[in-house]
Amino acid sequence: MARMKFLCDAERCIECNGCVTACKNVNEVPWGVNRRRVVTLNDGLPGEKSISVACMHCTDAPCAAVCPTNCFYTTVDGIVLHNKDLCIGCGYCFYACPFGAPQYPQQEAFGSRGKMDKCTFCAGGPEEDNSEVEFKKYGANRIAQGKLPACAEMCATKSLLAGDGDIVAEIYRKRVISRSGRPQTWGWAQAYGSASVG
Amino acid sequence: MTNRFLRRTAIATLAAVFAVAVAGCYESPNVTVTAHAPGQYKGKVDPLLTKLKAPELQKQLKGRLAEAAADR
After folding, report:
1. Which pLDDT belongs to residue B36?
2. DSSP for A63-132?
3. Which residues of chain B are at the A interface, by a Cβ-Cβ cutoff of 8 Å?
4. Angstrom distance (rounded) from CA A138 to CA A157
5. Residue A116 φ/ψ, nearest 5 degrees
6. CA dihedral defined by A103, A105, A106, A111, rounded to 10 degrees?
7. What integer best gives the mean pLDDT of chain A?
8. Is pLDDT of A39 > 70?
9. What is the rounded distance in angstroms from the CA atom of residue A105 to the CA atom of residue A112?
């Protein structure tokens, strides 16, 4: 069985925010909620790097571990989804998530939190697939239609990859070989010294 | 003497009425309580979970990735 993963190739990302726009457009995400963001390191300096970040659909998801209402579930493909009917908007998942993926729409005055919203890997939620209710609560369900997340499919430089983790890793490996040198995505040079060694 | 008898009768009657009233609030025992283990998802089942097991959909998704990630 496939294990769905996102991977952003920092060497290719040009900070165009096309993935952010595609996500907002396809899922009709409300104002104030960003399911996906582009983060730029050393912005404006030579060698700046950008990566597109959203829910990483963790294997051992900390959001699910801390949820007091146990509203999270994982699909057979490893996509972490949640049930908005069970969510109480407490914000524990936001504190637990290392990527800042959970978002809360401000629905009322005095900053009261609404139900948590996050990237669903374009897989909707626990409602009838591609129904109006599902779209309203969770956004598009492209996975049920045999499509991959809109952010990755729309990426102009093919920087953002989404799909079976094994295939994603293979594509990235080939790219690194063709670029020659170690991938710097995970900070190889910082951890093990010169990137050219080995 | 008569007063004491009347008071006792009144108390007994009130107690009987109270007992009948409380018995009227009794719920039938066939109420099923759903107990969930902690840390277990309790919500509605997502129909996508079944769909994802289909090999056709898996094949389609893999094909889609190969197509979407290919360089122009």
Report:
1. 62
2. HHHH-TT--EEE-TT--EEE-TTT-----HHHHH-TT---B--B-SSTT-B-S-B---TTB--SSSTT-H
3. 36, 38-49, 51-53, 57-58, 60-62, 64-66, 68-71
4. 27
5. -65, 145
6. -20
7. 89
8. yes
9. 9
Mean pLDDT of B20-48: 76
Instruction: Kindly indicate the confidence band of residue B70, based on its pLDDT and cuts at 50, 70 and 90.
Output: confident
Determine the Cα–Cα distance for residues A69 and A108; give it in Å rounded to an integer: 22
Residue with tokens 């190889």: A188
Closest CA to A99 of A57, A162, A161: A57
Given this model, what pLDDT does residue B1 score?
Answer: 64
Distance from CA of B17 to the nearest CA of A (A): 43
The answer to whether B61 contacts A148, with C-beta atoms less than 8 Å apart, is: yes
Cβ(A142)–Cβ(A148) below 8 Å: yes
Q: What is the nearest CA distance from A136 to chain B, expressed in angstroms? A: 16
Does A143 sit within 8 Å of B53, measured CB to CB?
A: no
Whether residue A37 has pLDDT greater than 60:
yes
pLDDT in tens, A81-103: 999 999 999 999 999 999 999 99
User: Which of A140, A113, A116 is CA-nearest to residue A127?
Assistant: A140
